[in-house]
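step 3/5: co-fold with calcium ion
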Amino acid sequence: MKPFKRIVLLSVTVGLLQLLLPGCVVTEPLPGPVAEITLTGSVSESEYTDGAYVPFFDRVLVVHGVVTDTDPMNSPDDWDGYVYIELTRLGDTAHYILSTDELTKVEGSENRWEFDRKLRLHSGWNTLRIFVSAFPGDSLTEKSELINLTGDWTYGREPVLCYLEWNDADFADLNLHTIDQYNNDCSADDPNVGGMVLDIGDSHGYGPEYITITNDQTGTYSVEVNYVNANGLTTALPCQVHVLVNGTELPQSPFTHTFAPDDVGETWQAVEVNY
Ligand SMILES: [Ca+2]
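step 4/5: write tokens
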């Protein structure tokens, strides 16, 4: 992905984006520290095929979180705990799990760790919050305040949105591809080509990766997944691809597949989208 041109604080209303930080609901804090959450947006140098800038800032958030190691006495140089961001869109809740190597120790602190994670917002009402526990399913040790966001992030220009998740594999790396009829191939290797933009890539594990097809000309797009690197994973790797056309998920979506341990380097075609 090209380097971001500048960072815009989302406390400013930009275009159709209306951030409701003043209306945040602060929930009852749990005993102990409260996870900190701050948001920024990003603007890239990517362009639409007609030369207009792709407004990353109106759909991609960078969530900065600060959380507490749940067992700081055990291996103090490694993160101990389970942290995820819960994003709810129109009643649909998704958990974005942080991989251990996404967390770095806050300088000068014994037990506070921080991360930056990009999230892709959808049109309508969104809420997000950080949760921390010692391990999956354990009781919470802390959570952040709840942040509410609303806006229209897909209005007009984005006929197709694809996203890839692989929820059961820390570290393993998959790459989402969309390939048009002219053989333009959008992926982490070429994140802005033929009107297709990789909004968010992920090489840590879990995903999601998002590609938005911004080209409003009709065409055929092959949606594919490449198993890039197992990074030590020795078990099967299930994944799923969601495809939305004009803001509505296809009836057959999500498309699912399981890569075998020796499938590294292999590609799976999830679907061909005619738009
Ligand atoms: Ca990837």
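step 5/5: annotate
Residues 1-27 have pLDDT under 50 and may be disordered.
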